[in-house]
Amino acid sequence: MIYLDSAATTLKKPPEVINAAAQAISSLGSPGRGGHDYAMRAAECAYTCRERAARLFNVENPENVVFTMNATHALNIAINSLVERGDRVLISAWEHNAVLRPLIGRGAEILTAETAPFEGENCLNEYERLLRTHPKCAVLNHASNVTGSILPIYEIAELCRKYGVPLILDASQSAGSVRIDMAALGAAFIAMPGHKGLYGPQGTGLLLCGVMPKPLLQGGSGSDSARSSMPDYLPDLAEAGTHNMPGIAGLSEGLDFVLRRGAENIHAHESSLIRRAAEGLRGKGAKVWLSEVPERQTGVLSFVFEGDDPETTAGRYNNSGFALRAGLHCAPLAHKSLGTFPSGTVRLSVSAFTTNDEIAEFLSV
Questions:
Q1: Among the CATH numbers 3.40.50.1390, 3.30.420.10, 2.40.128.490, 3.90.1150.10, which is that of 2-11+263-363?
Q2: What does the radius of gyration of the chain's CA atoms come to, in whole angstroms?
Q3: How far apart are CA 143 and CA 145, in angstroms?
Q4: What is the largest CA-CA distance in the chain?
Q5: Per-residue pLDDT tens digits for 184-223
Q6: β-strand partners of 190
């Protein structure tokens, strides 16, 4: 089967990722839990992973890189740290449930920037209009998991600083293929999964901290064990419990892969593939959502055939040997904005390992 669902998880990983995760099971202990060789090797592996993430995302201190289970976990820490019941919070019209549900659960008043996909800088007036009302914070995705549309986040971040509004960035669909510069953004938090564009194992994620978080979980940290409260420094403050060392070992190699390949090169490869796919699908009569400017879209392409339910379309492709995802993609707000709610779309998404031959075979069906 040809895998075209990388926005859910990148199924094909660099071999170094697989080897590192497998070897960690029998060679790494728990960092901070002992002074023996197994624990010390685990601590070194964890620090190397933090250091690689800090280098890729321009985080000044590797200790400000916190390990999480996934991007949802990271976003919950960030939102829990900044949002109280009744706070007004700015979001985009393209947010995932990983943002929407925690905000609703916290009792936030949600302000939505109603913009079209692929607008680029044309959407800034809407964001500035809402930021002028001084919401408690802004929680925005960098790129939509439905359309791949990339927000002009550096310009929006500048507006956030102008109005003194902390920014939480959901980089679930951009980390690894779009430039993310923590220092330039000045974000309070940036959340991301390890298993998508960073090519790590499932069950891994990162939270880049520009401010001190509040712990979402409390328990053992391997440090300051005599204290009755969590340590007051990063990363220990936000990392209660035993680390997922096989996942971290694999994620470290995934980060190294992106550093070596270059996020901009990965983006260029993915962009060429979805543009070829879009052209072919249009030739078959499909409606596709494609940016005229390649820099405004990640390797994600939504499409529908008129009169055909997206689930039926995806099922037909599955029977022909192609893995795509149909439906609402855990982002009903995005589909309401796109006008495709409640049936959704079919989503094709690619990675650094997707080939031109695979796209050609997809278009031949």
A1: 3.90.1150.10
A2: 20
A3: 6
A4: 67
A5: 999 999 999 999 999 999 999 999 999 999 999 999 988 8
A6: 169, 208
Interior angle at CA 198, CA 195 and CA 201, nearest 5: 30
β 109-113/88-92 pair status? parallel
- The DSSP bridge partners found for residue 192 are 206
**Cβ 173 vs Cβ 140: under 8 Å:** no
**Residue 204 has which token pair?**
């891994």
- What distance lies between CA 291 and its chain's CA centroid? 20
Tens digit of each residue's pLDDT (9 = 90 or more) over 253-301: 999 999 999 999 999 999 999 999 999 999 999 999 999 999 999 999 9
Let me know: does 24 contact 249? Beta carbons within 8 Å: yes
CATH class of 15-261: alpha beta
Measured distance CA(21)–CA(308) in Å, rounded: 42
Token readout for 252 is: 């470290």
The region of weakest confidence among 33-47, 78-92, 163-177, 215-229 is: 215-229
C-alpha–C-alpha distance, residues 161 and 345, integer Å: 36
DSSP SS3 for 227 = coil
On whether the CB atoms of residues 160 and 315 are closer than 8 A, the answer is no
Q: Which two tokens stand for residue 319?
A: 């029977």
Query: By three-state DSSP, how is residue 154 classified?
Result: helix
169 vs 177: CA distance, rounded Å: 15
Choose among 203, 182, 167, 173: nearest CA to 274.
Answer: 173
